[in-house]
Amino acid sequence: MDIGFVGLGNMGGALVRRLLLSRGLRAFDINPEAAAASAVNGAETAASPAELAASCDVILTCLPTSKEVRSVIFGDEGLVDGLAKGNVVVDMTTGDPAETRAMAAELAERGIEMMDAPVSGGPMGADAGTIAIMVGGSDELFARLLPVFNDISPNVFHAGGVGAGHTMKLVNNMTSAGNRAVAMEAITLAAKNGLDPRVAMEIMQKGSGRSFMTEVVFPNFILTDKIEQGFTLGLMHKDVSLAVKMGADSDTPLMLANITRQILQTAIDEMGPDADLNMLIKLYEKAAKVQVSKRP
Question: Element (H or E) spanning 88, and its range?
């Protein structure tokens, strides 16, 4: 099975590094520096998505949004110019389930299969081989691609048909964003009322308020000199917005998700979409006039 990979940013680059521990692959990124870094790790590089597709029968993509995925597949020198019948496109982007199903239908007309396999756990989880992979696709295709996913992590879950992986990822990120916001709000409240933020976090970690925030984010990022985690406010806002849209489309009220989306928008208005997601703590610090994070 010849594997290709498009998208070598923070997340895609980490996934490629993990795959290269077990197999060779070819890669493409519009950013020459990202492509060069992937080559240093052992990947062959291609000059275009079309060239990449012509030499691979399975192409994985990991890009910012479904818009970029569509462009990579169907745009100038896109994957479709090199793909053949029977080839497979696996989208590991946190994408729009409806758009994923639409692209899958267009590819199916050409005899090309598509599945979605977004991940959760960040670049650290990819490098460690612990990341969760949520797969949407047919049973047959899932069984065929399982060895590739297992080269990344043993935590592989078949969520259902095409689009189910992206649906599950939006549900996950909606929950993650809400947990992040309330945990930051809570620790800020503790600090404002005289508690050491680290002590408050450690106590919460042993109580019912524990979460990924108290287990990983606060001790490893917010309460250290390295606040940046490598995921932006803009990307999380995009994910929560897609979840809210999915809720509206399926007549499912998402009251807390809408509030979380507005909190993220407020942070973006102050710091910009490219600010690290952990900079959200600055919104709470500013409002409460108290220092929580170690780095000003």
Answer: strand 88-91
Query: CA–CA separation, 159 vs 252, rounded Å?
Result: 20
Distance CA 181, CA 36 (A): 37
Rounded to an integer, what is the distance from CA 242 to the centroid of its chain? 13
Residue with tokens 């680059």: 13
SS3 153: coil
**For residue 122, what are the CA distances in angstroms to 18, 56, 67, 160, 188?**
13, 26, 21, 23, 25
Nearest CA to 20 out of 114, 157, 124, 148 is that of 148
pLDDT digits (tens, 9 = 90+) for 51-110: 999 999 999 999 999 999 999 999 999 999 999 999 999 999 999 999 999 999 999 999
> Residue 293: what pLDDT?
94
Domains along the sequence of the chain with CATH: 3-162 (3.40.50.720), 167-288 (1.10.1040.10)
Residue 147 backbone zone (phi > 0: left; psi -120 to 50: alpha; other: beta): alpha
Mean pLDDT of 196-221: 95
* Nearest residue to 87 (alpha-carbon basis) of 113, 50, 49: 113
As annotated, the active-site residues are 169
